[in-house]
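Quick one: structure for this chain?
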Amino acid sequence: MSAALPFVGRGKEAARLQQLHAQRRHVLILGPAGVGKSALIRHAAGVLPLWVCPESVRCSELCASLESQLGLDEGDRRLVQRKQRLRQALAEAGKTVVFDGFGWTTPKLSSFLESVMERVPVWLGTRSEHSWDIGHFWTLLVRFERVELHPFHPAESCALVEAAVAAGRVPAAALEAVERLHHLAAGVPQVLNELLDGLASGRYDPHRLFELKLLDLDRRIREACPKPTGIVS
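Got it. Here's what it folds into:
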């Protein structure tokens, strides 16, 4: 969900995360692409003391993110030394560590994450909990509580569109197209936001079904054929 809009539609999940945080539990935040895992994590980080790694694919990038948040200088230390120092610093800080964008893990990355788990609570934001997607970390998932995100219900999509209108992001006419927008987005918040971005451009009439379908087609084309980096329209 856009940072420019109020956080809507995930009150139950947000409350569950606060409960699990108080209990210092490991958490798996699970859901398909675009369903709002990162938005939920950003919301939680605004009300709870968390360290958040937005990308959790390579150990070097993960270490760099945590070092920056902890105020540690990378210096000329080798990766093994950096990981050891991070484990100690995280244990002393005591905060929950969140690894968003979590996917395939190598044995070394899995071993490091397990060592972090032994010191502080760990949350993972991921699209899948299957072994063929998670890799070597899969066997450790039994130690995690699950918070699963599903696509929005129509009422939640309506709340998001209402928030966009109230923020002046899209014209009020978008409220009359909520049902169609929800259907086109299949309840996926990220897709719904992209459709709202299209309406904000003023190139599409929300009163006309044909233009809403054209809006969605244009969105799909952009998704399939992104512009090369550096090209500005």
